[in-house]
């Protein structure tokens, strides 16, 4: 016999107990669902980060470094002073993986999504300029116009180096210590850059 018997009947007590267990089941089930969703999101975030890191890293290797780009550009611009010489510009397509996972880019944290999107926006601008320079109209421009466009093309590649290094630095920091580590790395990079470099991305370390 329960102490509640004088107040409520046994059937009502049973209903209350049953409802309490049901509510507890909902709470536990909801917690498990949230935990599973968080685990899946973390796994997907790692997968996207790995893919982006690899693609950016490959492009950074192909871009050489600022000094090499400057040396190469100087030689090319010297050759372009000959009005009959039109440089061959290779096709730019350095966002294959990004395009495939763009639909999932929103799952990334603030610390990495901003630099990644900024980097790939620049990559697409470089691709567009490369296509313009491969068109017949480019060869019909004056030497000054052609060399100006080519100089812009090289400067954009140097900018891509800075943006790509920064994006991958943020991915690495986040992978090691989460949002706090990425924020700390961003602050550290900001302190080692000059004001001009800070506007364009991190210095090469």
**Helix fraction bin:** over 70%
Sketch the major β-sheet.
none
Low-pLDDT windows of residues: 194-205
Mean pLDDT: 85
Q: Terminal Cα separation, in Å?
A: 77 Å
User: What structural class do helix, strand and pairing data support?
Assistant: mainly alpha
> Quick one: how many beta strands?
0
User: Can you write the helix and strand succession as a string?
Assistant: HHHHHHH
Strand content: under 5%
Question: How would you characterize the overall build of this protein?
Answer:
The chain is mainly alpha-helical and about 200 residues long. The protein has 7 helices and no strands. The chain has helices at about 10-60, 65-80, 95-100, 110-135, 135-140, 145-190, 195-200. Helix 1 (about 10-60) packs across helix 6 (about 145-190) and helix 4 (about 110-135) packs antiparallel against helix 6. The longest helix has about 55 residues, at about 10-60. The termini are far apart. Mean pLDDT is about 85; it is low at about 195-205.
